[in-house]
Amino acid sequence: MNLPYQAMLEQATDSVIYADQTGIIRFWNRASEMLFGFSAEEAVGQSLDIIIPEYLREPHWRGFYAAIETGRTKHGGKPARTKALNKAGGYIYAEVGFCVVVDEETGRKGALSIARAAAPKG
């Protein structure tokens, strides 16, 4: 059975973002557009920094590169609640799950995140 993966990811109701091993966005679905405000044309080819608040960038990249190196995420596949930036420059809260993806043919690694809006704390 040949499944239409591209269409499935594009039509998912949760944000689906894939970044290569350097943190450059390579896939950005419609739900990502709705959540963060950037169109796919604006996001693909950009660093994940477009959605990471400046004060969270250093710990984010430390964790990102550690996950790429080890093939495992800090949270072991469990979603984490975090702040992100939207196109307008404001903060949003999102519940985000991450995983490392390895291309079996090339051995290249990247990161897949699936996110949805979360209510602010308190």
Can you describe what's shown?
This protein is an alpha+beta fold and 122 residues long. The chain is 29% helix and 30% strand. It is built from 4 helices and 5 strands. It has helices at residues 5-11, 30-36, 40-43, 54-70; strands at residues 15-20, 25-28, 80-85, 91-102, 109-117. Strands 2-1-5-4-3 form a 5-stranded antiparallel beta sheet. The model has no long low-confidence stretch (mean pLDDT 93).
Write a short abstract of this structure.
With 122 residues, the protein is α+β, with helices and mostly antiparallel strands. The chain is built from four helices and five strands, in the order αββαααβββ.
Distance, first to last CA: 47 Å
CA radius of gyration is 14 Å
Number of domains: 1
Share in β-strands: 25-35%
CATH superfamily: PAS domain
CATH C-level category: Alpha Beta
**Total count of helical runs of at least 4 residues:** 4
Number of strands: 5
Bin the helical content. 25-40%
Following the backbone from N to C, one meets helices and strands in this order, namely HEEHHHEEE
- Output mean pLDDT: 93
Poorly predicted runs are none
The neighbouring-strand order within the major sheet is 2-1-5-4-3
Q: Label the overall shape.
A: globular
- Largest sheet features: 5 strands, antiparallel
In terms of structural class, how would the helical and strand content be classed? alpha+beta
